[in-house]
Every structure is written in C-alpha cells, then in structure tokens.
Amino acid sequence: TLGDVWDFPYMWRLNEKYLFKWLAYYNVDSEPINPNYLRELASCCQIASTSHYGKEKMLELDPSLDVDVVYHGHDPNIFRPSNLQESQRKIIDHTEKGSFVKVDCENKFVVFMDSQNSYRKNYPKAIEAFAKFAEDKNDVMLLIAADPKHQPDSFDLQYSLNNFHHVPSSKVKIVSTSIPNGAWLPDTLMAHLYNIANVYLSSARAEGFGLSVLQAYATKTIPIVPDYASYRELVNDKTGFKIKIAAYDMSFMKTKAAIMDVDDCVQKLNLMYHDYKNGGELAKKMGEAGAKVAAENTWINSANAMLASILKCTKKDKVVVHPQN
Fold first, then answer.
1. Is the CB of residue 117 less than 8 Å from the CB of residue 153?
2. Is 0.85 topped by the overall pTM?
C-alpha cells in the first residue's frame, strides 16, 4: 500500500482474515503520530518510509517496528539543467481553449512555487513573504504552478494576491497544473518552469518527502523551505536554505503544523536576489551541490530500494495482530 498511515484503517482486518504479507509505504509529514495508528503499523510485515524523519517518528511510537527508508526519485531524462540564456527565459502557459502562450521572464529574478493549493502547503504565507520581498523591486516575479480552483481545501490564490497581499499582476503568474480535457501539465513543461526559476520556495506546514526539492536540485534551482520534518534532511547550507519556524498550530490530523517565519524567508530571498544581481556565484555553487544530491536520487534508485524492501517482506513470517478492544 502507498499513502499516509491513516489511509488504510481496514487493512489489519483484511490481513488477519486472508493472511497475506503486507508492505506499507508510509508518508509521515509531521509529528507526533497518533498512537491509535500503532495497530496498522504493527500489522505490517514490512514498513517503508519516504524519509528518515518518518522512520524516526514511527520508531518513537514503537521501537520494535522494522522500517526501511525509500526516497522518492526524479526522472533525470526530464528534470535536468537546460542552461537557458536570458532571452530564453519564457513561461510556457496554456489558455482556457488549450493553446499555449509564452510569458517573458527575461532579466527577472523568478521565485517558483510548485505544489497543490492546499491548507498543508500554506500558499498565503509564501505570498506574504514575496509581497514584502518584492515591494521595492521591479525585476522580480512569483511563478506559481498549481490548480487554483479544484483542491478540496484550497485558498483563493487570485484573491490573496490581489486583495490581501496586493501583489501587482506584473509580478505574478499562475500556471494551472490542470489543463483542458482533463489532462495535467506535462512533465517537460514543469521541468522548463524549474529551469526558468532562480529559487524554489515552499511554505508547507508539513512535508513527508518533498519531491519538488529534488526536481529543483536536478535543474540547479535553489530551494528555500521551512526548517521542519523531512525538509531538514533534504536541504543543508551547501544546497539551499531552511526558513526558521515562527510558530506551530494543530493540523487536521492533530499533529504539529509549522508556520514559517516570513521575515526570515524575505531575508533569504534578498540574499539570493543580490547574488543574482552580482553574477550568481553563490547560486552556481549551491546548484552544483544540489545536482549531486539529485544524481543519487533518481527513480532507478527508488525502484532498487523498494525492490529490496519487497524482497525482505517476502522472506518474513506472516504477522497477525489481534487488537485489544
């Protein structure tokens, strides 16, 4: 099974009835794990976690659990540096009718966000940071790749930009990740957006892995992310920046949800902006370090790690847990 711990509350009953071997690939994005989920965890023959952070939190719940770590991976044939010249930095976007247009980003410092528009990703906090960063600059752009309309707990991004944080339309572009006829934005175009960007910005309250960080590394784009959960192991001071946490609130799953420090985020955006204006030596150095991390975490690496976990599971005796009332 693939999902969050709480996605499979019925599996322990099926496992007890039909006596199959169960490998659970779990994503843990915040802490602590509710002890009520120990029944599901203990019913697995083998557990794989998307991060060392997730493994650590599961073992805090029960040290006897057998947990492997299997990172997600990126496709290096798609996510790779394209070494765009300034004149080639154009956003490819689609219209309501399905045709594609280009938006010019030449000679602009581009802050890119790529995620679902959801409570967990917390777009308004990133927009607040960008608004403060951009208020005295005319050569910056916020590029958002998201579906602005169809997320179950989504924010009204356009309202937040126009009426709440007052970001001028000339400084922002939303590229919808869903396009006409029910399709999704092609990976090749997503990789192009990463290559246009100078930095990748996340304001997520919680994160179980952060594939976008790997995609940023693969295109030599510098990640700026909250200092929480799995981001802590993916980003270091040689490859990107971790934003201080200002506070925590309670998530829907009763875990700690991090709220990034807006001023610290602005400080890090300004650092990379000034580097961009002065030749980009820091970005080049960080980009090379990030590319090495990306090279070690492709989908082939993920597949091999998952295969090892599957083989381990097949060799184990069946585990049956009889939960107490």
1. no
2. yes
